[in-house]
Automatic annotation (TrEMBL):
InterPro entries according to UniProt: Znf_AD
Organism placement in taxonomy: Eukaryota, Metazoa, Ecdysozoa, Arthropoda, Hexapoda
Residues that bind Zn(2+): 7, 10, 56, 59
GO CC terms in record: nucleus
Pfam families tied to this protein: zf-AD (PF07776)
GO molecular function: zinc ion binding
Record keyword Repeat present: no
Record keywords, A-Z: Metal-binding, Zinc, Zinc-finger
Gene3D superfamilies: 3.40.1800.20
Organism of provenance: Callosobruchus maculatus (Southern cowpea weevil)
Protein origin, superkingdom: Eukaryota
Signal sequence bounds: none
Domain ZAD: 5-83
Secreted as UniProt keyword: no
Protein name as annotated: ZAD domain-containing protein
Amino acid sequence: MESNKICRSCLRNTENLRNIFSTEEILGQHVQLSEILASCFSVLITKNDGYSENICLKCFQLAKLSYLFRKLLKALQQRKTCREHYDILR
Ligand SMILES: [Zn+2]
């Protein structure tokens, strides 16, 4: 079995895969899937580490949603911080 036809995350054998080092456009920004896995899940992936470099579309969607949710929380946090500063300055 070819390791690159297996999802690195859920280990499913499928043809519908995305390369972890490919770039995706999310909210107008170009982000590498490996960066999403690193920032959301603290999973550091290097090329040629012996594991599959692909994830299936289901895992990709989950990673993308997690990334978006993280962005949302960060944006809310920043807004709160800005508001606190605003309240202090008043
Ligand atoms: Zn998967």
